[in-house]
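Supplementary Methods. Inverse-folding protocol.

Structures were first reduced to a discrete structure-token string of length 189. This string, shown here, constituted the complete conditioning input.
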């Protein structure tokens, strides 16, 4: 009986320790928040490069590959327009391909006012999820005349999970940040 009780206590301690190890310290959370915002800013730069009509096709393809690496599998990006009420959602790669094919001579896309709107919340599977909001200013012009412009508020889901990698034969655990769906919440002139 005593051995069983001792075994149960050890199992409980191991499970509790494992659960506690999954918690994010305030210092680590700050580093994770910074990494998430950095990845959102990187995406902003990539979208500007992909949308720029002066970017060579081969460079745009390379940047699309890099941008896709920022996302969790099956993530979607929302597209809205002032001329229609519905919002269309596309897989990340399809979104980039549509962006590159826009029928404008010049496209200018800027993201600003990037900030968290929800703190990271732990999910039952051990991952953390949060939301970052950005505002996107889109301008498309043809023959040096502004043809279309809008400002879109977008919410970006952020996933944070514990991963492991091998470095020189040692297993190293780290927190990784991936972007998820990008939902349009508001579109204005």
């Amino acid at each position: 009986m005593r051995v069983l009780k001792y075994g149960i206590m050890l199992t409980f301690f191991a499970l509790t320790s494992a659960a506690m190890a999954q918690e994010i310290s305030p210092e680590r959370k700050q580093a994770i928040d910074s990494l998430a915002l950095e990845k959102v800013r990187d995406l902003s730069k990539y979208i500007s490069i992909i949308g720029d009509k002066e970017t060579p096709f081969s460079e745009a393809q390379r940047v699309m590959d890099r941008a896709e690496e920022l996302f969790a599998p099956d993530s979607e990006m929302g597209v809205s327009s002032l001329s229609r009420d519905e919002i269309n959602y596309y897989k990340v790669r399809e979104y980039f391909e549509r962006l590159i094919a826009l029928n404008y001579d010049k496209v200018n896309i800027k993201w600003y006012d990037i900030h968290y709107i929800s703190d990271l919340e732990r999910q039952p599977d051990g991952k953390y999820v949060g939301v970052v909001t950005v505002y996107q200013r889109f301008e498309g012009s043809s023959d040096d005349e502004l043809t279309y412009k809008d400002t879109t508020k977008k919410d970006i889901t952020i996933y944070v999970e514990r991963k492991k990698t091998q470095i020189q034969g040692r297993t190293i655990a780290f927190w990784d940040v991936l972007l998820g769906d990008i939902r349009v919440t508001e579109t204005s002139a």
